[in-house]
Write a structure and sequence with these properties.
This protein has nine helices and seven strands. The chain is of the alpha/beta class. The protein starts with a helix and ends with a helix.
Length: about 250
């Protein structure tokens, strides 16, 4: 019986992917098929075994039907469907918890930062050079990206002084983790929205995880509507920063 169980465990481990990639989806119908195709092309060339976890956050458009159709025809992809809109942080967190890979990460599905950086980041964790690897956004400044760039740099400065981020680009939607190390950190991370990124990075830093940044080119897409609402989100960030500072 012990031998049988051991063989079953070995077989299960062999089936586990090396990488689980989480893609949070909200109102992505316009770019879904093109973006996922681009991401999968990179993963196929990466040399790693992988799976994709699509987390559909109750989009009002037809994103859910596109996710369902894609998963039906692609066995390496599976989906989580929220029954109501839960937010970016909750979506990514649910994907990480459901992941099977020893390395888990997420990128923004709009590919404003290209998926070509994925293999490098995964390789760094696989080689035990880091526990967390994130993309440090380098902007190609245009009129449409200027507001986001100013907000991003200003927020990095403020967050570092208020809660000690170490100057990291905490809000980058491009992060990879050693899953065994990030799960205890994730269990303490509470914010369901955009501030989740800041919170998990500060908690990871305080937990002693080895964090490395890789420079990535950010190219603003003008062919899709951003889900970021500057006035609402800036207000939420400032309130969340103050509350989190009090908790710390």
């Amino acid at each position: 019986l012990r031998s049988f169980l051991l063989l079953c465990m070995i077989a299960a481990m062999k089936k586990r992917p090396q990488l689980s990639l989480v893609l949070a989806c909200y109102n992505e119908a316009q770019i879904f098929n093109e973006s996922v195709r681009h991401i999968v092309d990179v993963l196929k060339r990466s040399g790693f075994t992988w799976e994709i976890i699509l987390v559909e956050d109750k989009s009002p458009d037809n994103t859910a039907s596109l996710v369902a159709a894609y998963c039906k025809s692609n066995p390496r992809c599976r989906a989580i469907y929220h029954t109501n809109n839960r937010g970016r942080g909750k979506s990514v967190g649910d994907g990480i918890r459901a992941a099977k890979g020893a390395i888990v990460g997420y990128i923004d599905i709009d590919c404003e930062v290209s998926p070509v950086y994925i293999p490098e980041m995964v390789a760094m964790i696989a080689a035990n050079k880091a526990d967390v690897v994130i993309g440090k956004r380098i902007y190609r400044t245009t009129f449409s990206s200027l507001l986001r760039e100013v907000f991003s740099l200003g927020y990095q400065w403020l967050a570092d002084r208020m809660i000690g981020t170490g100057g990291l680009d905490t809000e980058t939607g491009y992060k990879f983790f050693r899953r065994s190390k990030i799960l205890p950190v994730l269990a303490k991370t509470r914010h369901p929205g955009w501030f989740w990124d800041t919170e998990i990075m500060v908690r990871a830093r305080r937990a002693g995880l080895r964090i490395t940044e890789v420079s990535v080119l950010f190219l603003r897409r003008d062919d899709k509507q951003s889900t970021v609402q500057p006035l609402r989100d800036i207000t939420d960030y400032l309130i969340s920063l103050w509350r989190f500072r009090s908790q710390l």
